Amino acid sequence: MRVRVYATLRDLLGAREVTLDLDGETPVREVLQRLTEAYPALAEKLWDDQGNPTGFVRVLLNGRLLEYLDGMDTLVKDTDEISLFPPVGGGR
Predict the structure, then answer these.
(1) What does the alpha-carbon distance between residue 31 and residue 8 come to, in Å, rounded to a whole number?
(2) Within a domain: 92
């Protein structure tokens, strides 16, 4: 499966996207845990001290926000794409 990262998160990974091999359907939480094991700098953006999502990063599956699906329990497969967006701010 493909994980795409945007804006400042690219600096943490050093790439625009990462490909992960899955063994069947896998919860988003597990995919993101595997990603942060490979890229530890991303962990503090995704997880708090108790291992819960921080809410700092917006997570989309195939263009849909996880909160409109089954959250971190949403199952993904090899053909899916996860996108990670940091918060966007600005203006006056």
Answers:
(1) 20
(2) no
What's the sign of the alpha-carbon dihedral 80, 11, 59, 41?
positive
Q: How many domains does the chain have?
A: 1
Domain encompassing residue 45: 2-85
91 part of a folded domain: no
pTM attached to this predicted model: 0.89
Nearest to 34 by CA among 90, 82, 70, 69: 82
Q: How far apart are CA 42 and CA 28, in angstroms?
A: 15
CATH code of the domain covering residue 10:
3.10.20.30
- Please write the tens of the pLDDT for every residue from 30-51: 999 999 999 999 998 999 888 8
